[in-house]
Amino acid sequence: MKDRTLTDELRLLVSRYGLDKVDVELQRLVARQPTTVTRSKPKPNGDVSRKARRPRARVKAPEYVAKMDIEGDRIATLLALAERFEAKSFLPRCADIRNFCHIHGIDEPASKSRAGAIPRLFKHLAAMDPNDIQRLLDENAFSGPAELGPLADAIREHGRAARGPNAVREASATFREPPLPQDEAGVS
Amino acid sequence: MTSDGPVCISVINMKGGVGKTTVAALLGRHASLAGLKVLAIDLDPQANLSQAFMGDQYKQFLADKKPSIVELFNGFRPPTPTTRLPTSIDVEDVMVSNTSLGGRNLKLIPSRFDFSDQLIDAVRPDQRVLANVIADSSEDWDIVLIDCAPTESILTRVAYQASRYVLVPVRPEYFATIGFPLLKDSLDDFKGRNRGHTIEVAGIVINNSSYHYSGNRGGPERRRSTIEIKREGQKNEWHIFEQEIPFSRGFPKIMRGDFSHPGDAVFFPDFAREFFEHIGLDS
Question: Is the ipTM of this complex over 0.85?
Fold first, then answer.
């Protein structure tokens, strides 16, 4: 809720001295008594200032990794994983992150958002064996639920390569019906 | 981690659609997340276990013509534009790790649909190939899980040769026990031909044991089928696990690699714990 008295008094001051003068004076007050003038903490009645309500700018995974203190040879791999994380082709959903944490014995991040999980996740990845990180990247592992269509296409494609495109036709061409017994073949 | 040493188990039923692959995959996942070293082997040319563990990676695996159980059986990798000669193959070359379903301690020997072609074309496939491969790397594993095809073939014998136990998933429905006599005959025949082998049925697990969507846990048909399963199990002196695997839409989701809202699939570890304890594994 707005503090109407404060608003009215501020209006009065602005009308008497002008907005610029009031603003300058307020800035001076802020400089002298920052703790009493700024209100970043919620009020006792649960109201929060506009500054506190404003969402923090989301840290993206590649930015986070770029700021980490990591040796040269693994930074490129981690950055590539971070890019995939942002593109949602690595751990695309919160459930995938939970599963990854479960498998790797990491405490699940308290945050329920993917962004909130970035620090814990990438700290763990940075500590992993470089070969294991590279394998995660090469094998496109932990990319979320599988789709049946592309999998079926891959099997079909592999079948064509392994058996040849005319496998069924060739198999039928070489197949010969076994001869019927004489009585069924109508031979007397 | 193991009280009685490493162990190899085949998940098998001569009837299809009973959940063999799901049970094998989730036992592998559970064991690996519990810290056991797991080798999962896909012995079914349909390659569903491979697809479950690898998800979208399976497409790349096919595209890259990476070696699979087919090459392990053949004993070599065929020439490629770079190698130009057949090259020897090691089990390590075939294994896939880092799967999103299996965890860090699980490795998979994947299958391909042309596995059956290779076996048809082979003059006399050696049913001991897999047992030899496992024997060579036995110290690397706490548990080896083999997902079998639902029909009796040379691959069934391959699985038996390597296994100490078989686990039999079954669904409580009219055709449930059809596979039991076939399995019994098959095991008896195998043991008759391999006197030194001590393969045993670890037990029967009732899968999809409740039908939530029907509102009455499957009704009288489910009860009747469950009684028949238990009766047939006792006839063969096969153990029946107390923990049943409940019906859950979460299972097919997990097989797809979707870990959101697993539903009653979260109860799978209850069975897994009972199973591992029964065969002397501490998970």
Answer: no
